[in-house]
Amino acid sequence: MIPVEGAQVTIPSAIFYPAAGTAPIYGRAAIEAYTLQEPGRLMRSLKSILGSTLVAEKTAVGGQYVSFEDILVGFVKHLKRKAEFVCGETIDEVVMGRPVHFVDNDAAADERAQDKLQTIAKKAGFKTVLFQFEPIAAALQFEETLTRDETVFIADIGGGTSDFSILKTGPRHKGNADRSHDILANEGVRVGGTNLDMRLSVAAVMPLLGANSRNLRGLDLPIWPFIDLATWHRIHMIASPDNMSLFRQILTDARERHLFERFVKVIRERTGHEIAGKVEGAKIALSQHTEAGIDLAVVEEGLVAPAKRDVLETSTRHELERVETSVKETLHAAGLQAEQITAVFLTGGTSAVPIVREALVAPFAKARVVEGDLFSSVGYGMALDAMRRFGRTDKRKHQQIPGFLR
């Protein structure tokens, strides 16, 4: 793995566009610039845009309108330059990771999302672009550690998706050029850490900003503004002129005006991402504790939203059920019983959340549970796959391995 931000081998999918129109800032530095209240615009969880119609739209950044596609091109180009600087040579070929499903239950939209990602990679300067399912890549990394054959269930749960695979792995399989017979199943669902963040925010934070309150006529305030403010990749879009006009109308008619005034203040002062970061921190803290406070001093001095583990569990029950269903579907697609799985390999940051981990490992009582590098296993596996498919002797002649994605 190579450093892509300082000494770090990972980088958050965040971009900050300074208001002055200077070069965008990427990763942790982007989040820091935004947190320090530099004038400009922050975008986070950009991968969530893939698979949605939003990718074709334009938005205002740095004094100009730019398509979300070109924003993603800039991010991939940034990574490409980092890799080329470290390697000291031009890199023309790439294996890109992709979730099992960009879009749930829509094969055509899923194909369009991969095509769009390929277009983005080629615009960024890559000449040959191949794809691999992210859990398959994680399996390749896991296989490096094995001294005996295993039937392994791979779970990769990141910010936006939960991806599952069942493979035959180990010394007897590792050297085979054709691994198609070793891949028993691939399934997935569009549920990830950002979904849990959103649910916790709506349950614990948004009521302090007016969610679940009513107007003077006794009608509930619309819920969508609070959901947007709680959703990482929608926060930057909520302050449109049309929305601000609507929020002023809601404020005039709000029964508990002081609550919705807090909401408007968050939008006006651009502290939505900072609050989302606090919610994410509380979600992580609830992995170790039954309660955690979400500091909302950016909204009002001394304001704290209490977050409890049982609230997180209750509010995310629907998402967890979808994960559990997808695990069962993966087993069914492989034609196996849970008892036939000898190892469960977990990767992706969200797999460390206790309620998620329990949903993943509960069906496999007899299997050993192995935790990979939560943030680097997939990247390392992609490198192994690229070495196998492109080779080192003649980089222009890549090998298309049957059973792997083109």
Describe the fold and architecture.
With 406 residues, this protein is of the alpha/beta class. The chain has 3 domains: 15-93, no CATH class; 140-192 and 317-375, 2-Layer Sandwich (Nucleotidyltransferase, domain 5), CATH 3.30.420; 194-315, no CATH class. Helices cover 41% and strands 18% of the residues. The strands form 5 sheets. Strands 10-9-8-13-14 form a 5-stranded mixed sheet, with helices on both faces. α13 links the parallel β13 (343-347) and β14. α2 crosses α3. Mean pLDDT is 88; it is low at 393-406.
Short descriptors:
disordered C terminus, five-stranded mixed β-sheet, alpha/beta, 41% helix, globular, 406 residues, 18% strand
What is this entry, summarized?
By secondary structure, this protein is an alpha/beta fold. Helix content is 41%, strand content 18%.
End-to-end separation: 23 Å
Instruction: Output the structural class.
Output: alpha/beta
What sort of overall outline do the alpha carbons produce when their principal axes are compared?
A: globular
Major β-sheet strand ordering: 10-9-8-13-14
Proportion of residues in extended strands: 15-25%
Run of helices and strands: EEHEEEHEHEHEEHEHHHHHEEHHEHEH
Number of helices, where a helix is a run of at least 4 consecutive DSSP H or I residues: 14
Q: What's the number of domains? A: 3
Tell me about the largest β-sheet: 5 strands, mixed
> Would you report the number of β strands?
14
Low-confidence stretches: 393-406
Q: How much helix, percentage-wise, in residues?
A: 40-55%
Compute the average pLDDT: 88
Radius of gyration: 22 Å
